[in-house]
Design a protein that fits this description.
By secondary structure, the chain is of the alpha+beta class. Helix content is 40%, strand content 28%. Keywords: DNA recombination, DNA-binding, Transcription, Transcription regulation, Translation regulation.
């Protein structure tokens, strides 16, 4: 099962005693802050969970897989994510989260 934004907001509402719309608003604001930080080129780190950062990719030669034609892929930025060792241990059953 995939955990969605709506599921997370409902769990926050249930666990913290918020109304669902309040929990949704808080969660949306959190995501908005994270997006704005990444757009500004800042890293986002949540201790015990993971870290997001923006990496620059240089322009490079590529190939169209349908035609085999050589093309140039433009330089771009990508968001990468690395998990925390604490999360890794929890997922592997070494420690309770």
């Amino acid at each position: 099962m995939t955990l969605t934004k709506a599921d997370i907001a409902q769990k926050v509402a249930d666990d913290c005693g918020f109304m669902k719309n309040e929990a949704t608003e808080v969660f949306e604001k959190l995501l908005d802050i994270m997006k704005k930080s990444l757009i500004a080129g800042e890293d986002v780190m949540i201790s015990g969970f993971g870290k997001w950062n923006v990496k620059s990719k240089h322009a490079r030669r590529g190939r169209n897989p349908q035609t085999g034609e050589q093309i140039t892929l433009d330089a771009r930025k990508v968001v990468s994510w690395g998990y925390s060792p604490v999360l890794k241990k929890a997922v592997n059953g070494d420690r309770k989260p």
